[in-house]
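[Meeting: bench + compute handoff]

Bench side (C.D.) handed over the final construct sequence. Compute side (W.E.) agreed to return the predicted structure before the next meeting so the bench team could plan truncations. Sequence as handed over:
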Amino acid sequence: MCAPGILSGKAALRGGEVRTVVLVVIALVGAQASGQTFCEVFSENFDTLTPPALPAGWESSRNRNPLQNDFVSAASGAQSPPNVLLSTNATVAQYVISPLINFADLIPGEIGFALRRSSSHFAGILLEASTDEGSTFSLQIGDTLRPTGETAFEVSSLPLSPLLSNVRGVRFRWRTIPESTGSSGTLRLDDVTITARAANDLAIHKVAFLPQIARESTLVSAHITAANLGTRPASGCEVVLGYDADRDSNLSPQEQWGTTAQLSILAPGETTQVTIEFVSPAAGEYLLTVEVRAPQDQVLANNSLKVQLLVSSRWASVVINEIVFAPPSGEPEWVELYNPSDRAVTLNGWKLGDASFREGKDITTESVVIGKGEFVVLTKDTFGLYDVHPDLRGRAIGMTGFPSLNNAGDEIILRDNTDSVIDSVCYSPSWGGMDGASLERRDFEDPACDPLNWSSSLDPLRSTPGRPNSIGVLDIDLAVVSASVFGQRVGQSLAVSAMLKNVGRHVIPLVKIRLCVDADGDSVPEPEELVAENNLFLSIVKGESSSVVLTWESPPGGIHRLCVMVLCDGDLRSRNDTVWRAATIGYFPSEVQINELMFAPLAGGAEFVEIVNTGGEGVDLCNWTVGGGWGEGPTSKGYELAAVRTILRPGEYFVLASDSSVLRRYSMCAADSGHLTIVGKSSLQLDNDGDQLVLRDATGMPIDSVAFSARWHNPELLDLTGRSLEKVRPALSSADPRSWGSSVSASGGTPGCVNSIFTDQLPNQSRLTISPNPFSPDGDGKEDYTLVQYEVPMVTCTMMITIFDVRGRLIRRLSNNDPCTSRGIVAWDGLNEDRQRVRLGIYVVLLEVCDGTSNILWTDKSTVVVAGRL
């Protein structure tokens, strides 16, 4: 190629046997040394011609012989074989003239040539230039070259005068200055080179890729350095990067990967760096072309640069999918690879390594292709592998140098043919994969280094070589990952907060979630057991979670087994669609009360505690306990009333007894209904002098409690053994001693039946009512107690209830500044302050209500008659 207007002598080199003229227009000469890049406009090698012809355009003197050129081509002793220009006889003036050189729009740089003298050639040599196409040579280039005594070629490089700039008809003349001696001397001229700087010359200087080795389908930055090597400012240029796929040395628009906007004006000698970003192609090696395109560029040879781009396979384009590092006897270790990408991958040049040899060994030297969605199993023993897995699908490769996998944990590294790591995993036996099972990967899209992304195979065969993993992520898979229950009292709504997670790949827009109660205990959620349901538009994407709340309105008390179930169209895995939870619904205090206590039984008899449902709804006694309120021992932890669902309906009794003797001694109404629990111990560890008992529901909340004492028995009883404490009426406060009395039953107690001292008359609506009136406290079990019912027009207060005889003498204080509410009942057993039975007669009951500061706010009184049997 030649720049416009620059002489090319190649076409004229015909006929002679002097060397060929080769005109090279674009070449970087001396750029690193001088900082300037010159255009090599002329280079003379003098080859392939037949002596004694001169190259076309060259002229020689004929001073030695008018019929023969003084300078001729010769085949011997060339600097660049085979030919050289040769002259003889240093005593005669001689010259040789170059062809025309065109320096239009150029600034001359240097002229270089090689000279060789024989030892007897002493003539001086002068280089001159002509600006008038050789008419005159008025411009001397450098000093006269004198012999140095060296007989080998000496290379000279002389700067050219700026006077030659923009001159079209320049010729150079090498002229000898005769010397009287050395007539036999010879002179050789070879390798003439002339350089110049162009006015318009942009060049690509350097290209660097970041990263140096690109990942497939990732962003790559090409950092390109362009330089203005010309003598004029450059503008209107752009840089283009592309891949010359058809190799026609031209980047078509379809072959261009990126281009810059027009560069800013570059001053002569100035460089600039531009960046072109592009997405790397498929894995492989690419020879890219980077071009600078300038409208007036005179030197095209330095406008482009070829650079190699190395592209590695995409990260996780092939993944380590399953590992057997602790195989059962007879099975070799193996590693399964899976191709999740959208195209086939050739495994030639790929390597597999471990922690002891991270560089890895070649997987195969054959042409092995793993297609989209296919598996390849690597092992050192394919025969042993097929023996254990005869139905193995996919390809097994017997790999020379297969790493020995450490049972205590190891690293497995997969590299492609660029030596780039494509996938790696540092597994641990704590992740799974022991006891003959493989270690399976859940999701190829999640990091291999995440322990939660691996687990032991759940497949019946303990591994899945050549087929999808048993724990692998599916396209559509919605799971209930957790559920929490809130609300623990009867009468309150029960809320279940369920956490849903999309563990599949596809977005799930519509979700149906149900809450069922396993009423029949068969662990199968059925339509009739449905208590709540929601249809939701959530649009949950992969890996995201969403919380959903289901509400069960007014659930009954007790322990319920709940099932949270999620449904979505196309769900491919059902085993994670349900979560079971237990919900314990507690009861309010006093819905069930302690009604009878046997704490001092006869020898061989059983201690027992009787409770009764005083509420209006059935109560589930499952996991209810009766135990001590303080201290250590079994009673402090409580004895369990029932381990399964046991409904105690309103008015029904339940008995907890220490041993089965309770069945022989008493008529057990509770036993007939199944409301009896026998602990199977010698006692319930109830203190004969008194103890603390607390009744707790399944949530552990106290429902009723009593701190009883043996002094609550009838003081006229000389022997309390074998006689229970009974409540006068179940609804009375268990903590009030006046609510209790000694059983008058012939058997000493009424476990599971109505209490022997039960009083069923209710007071009339009045401020102070006494019933029964009269009553007969003679211990026969009939009307032994009278109930003093009061009503006061205050929410909270203190009260005193005092009994006087007709003479006004104090007989008994039933209540002495005790806290009370607006209404209540107090029982009188007919005893005085000394616990002696009072005489028959009429007695006055005085009620005084105070405000807590001993100020009496309200009083009332009535009479009661103590009678006897006729």
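W.E. noted at the follow-up: The helical segments are 31-34, 382-388, 634-637, 661-665, 669-673. C.D. will use this when planning the next construct.
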